Amino acid sequence: MHLLVTGANGYIGLRLIPALLEAGHRVTAVVRDRRRFPFADFPKSEDRLRILEGDFLKPESLPGFPEEIDAAYYLLHSMGGGGDFAEKEKAVAKSFVAALDQTNCRRIIYLGGLVDQNKELSVHLRSRQEVEALLDSAKAGLTVLRASIIVGSGSASFEIVRDLAEKLPVMICPRWVGTLCQPIAIRNVIDYLTGLLDHPDTVDRTFDIGGPEVLRYRDLLEGYAKVRGLKRLFIPVPFLSPSLSSWWLYVMTSTTFSLARALVQSMKNETVCRDKAIREVIPLPLISYHDAVELALARIAQNRVPSRWADSLQAGTMDPDFINAIRVPEHGVYSDNQEVDLTASREEVLNAIWSIGGQNGWPSMNWAWKIRGVLDRLSGGTGLRRGRRHPSKLRPGDPLDFWRVLVADRTAGRLMLYAEMKLPGEAWLEFSIENGRLRQTATFRPQGLFGRLYWFSVLPFHWLLFPGMARRLAAGSN
């Protein structure tokens, strides 16, 4: 079959595409920036994998889709991007339908969210239903899979559970931790998404998908702690409002505040399968929550996490179009320039540069980077908790602590980072190797008087930090 996959650089997309290719299908993947797509992960599938570049929020940027498409996967989501994500989601869905209606596509497969029809829906779940209705207006038939919490390495829900259970020996539990859900392993989600292709009779049908157990959110935390051998004390409290809960999640986990708020609002709604028809159509062994957690932790331990929710540009503060403007501004900026001779081999220096941040820490005054991360978190920024996708590999668009990777060209010896921390201006950090020398440049473009005061207030730290960092990297140390 010839399949169209939207959101191909997203959490689900990067896991679905390999499964589709392995099954022998031909895939056209739509991304906003093809430079962020991990082509190296598909060395033997180039003849069956085509990448199209376009932004559904800018319909004029969309390329023409192939006329003959058997099915299209709709995996687009704007919840992590903040702002009025519901309006964004409707605009994206309308652009998708308009573009797809120009093809002969026979069906759309949409991964939505489970809802409790007996309760008032959160903005997030209501938005998912509105998107579903828009997709149903397309010429192609629609198949909907509605899922509860997806458990897998790198998923937003799993990372929140992981952060809370790992960091808090005593947990204050608001009322929503008693809400029921039916978590499903990411492997089972992919099995269902691919299995639908073998059942044309599933067009124009909606299915609930979930794992074998109905659990409380508290059970998710206790289950994770049990797998990890951690003892945790849970103290229920009746007074933690949704607003306070959102801030609590934001402060204690790696999630953004907009995502935390949307998730907390949704947690008042039970997300439990009301029918089990999908199990008869696609019978498969369902993975328990305990086993799903073990599988996720094994992936993390082996550095084999193919995708994370934080990798999405929606999870940061950078304008997605900015990644196309690779040049650092030269006028109206302050900069710190360090040039040192390499005292290690070029490859050793590249390895050191490509390993900065995350669990590896920073080469100079790592304690100061941690303090800056805490201050950023307290001021509403991303902090250091996003870490890295991989301890030694980088690609454009990757998050790296409170930075976003703009350029990662090992052949040219160039790495450029853009700051997503809260700043009164914009900042870049660039490393390049040329003629046996390492050039390290920190650039700051201030916004107003406060931006200029900020630069001069941190200048003493820069005098201590940046020279030492350049010397250590030039020596191949991290």
Provide structural commentary:
This protein has 478 residues and is of the alpha/beta class. 33% of the residues lie in helices and 21% in strands. Helix 2 links the parallel strand 4 (71-74) and strand 5 (107-113). Helix 2 packs parallel to helix 3, helix 4 packs across helix 6 and helix 7 packs across helix 8. The chain starts with a strand and ends with a helix.
Shape: globular
Count of helix runs: 13
* Arrangement of strands in the largest sheet: 3-2-1-4-5-6-11
Biggest beta-sheet profile: 7 strands, parallel
Round the Cα radius of gyration to an integer and report it.
23 Å
Itemize the secondary structure elements and their pairings:
Elements: E1 2-6, H1 13-22, E2 26-31, E3 49-53, E4 71-74, H2 85-100, E5 107-113, H3 123-135, E6 141-147, E7 150-151, H4 156-167, E8 170-173, E9 180-181, E10 184-185, H5 186-195, E11 205-209, E12 215-216, H6 217-228, E13 233-236, H7 242-252, H8 257-266, H9 277-281, H10 289-301, E14 334-341, H11 346-353, H12 366-378, E15 399-400, E16 403-409, E17 414-419, E18 425-434, E19 437-446, H13 448-474
Parallel strand pairs: 1-2, 1-4, 2-3, 4-5, 5-6, 6-11, 7-10, 8-13
Antiparallel strand pairs: 9-12, 14-19, 15-16, 16-17, 17-18, 18-19
Helix pairs in contact: 2-3, 4-6, 6-10, 7-8
In brief, what are we looking at here?
This protein has 478 residues and is an alpha/beta fold. The protein has 13 helices and 19 strands. The N and C termini lie far apart (47 Å).
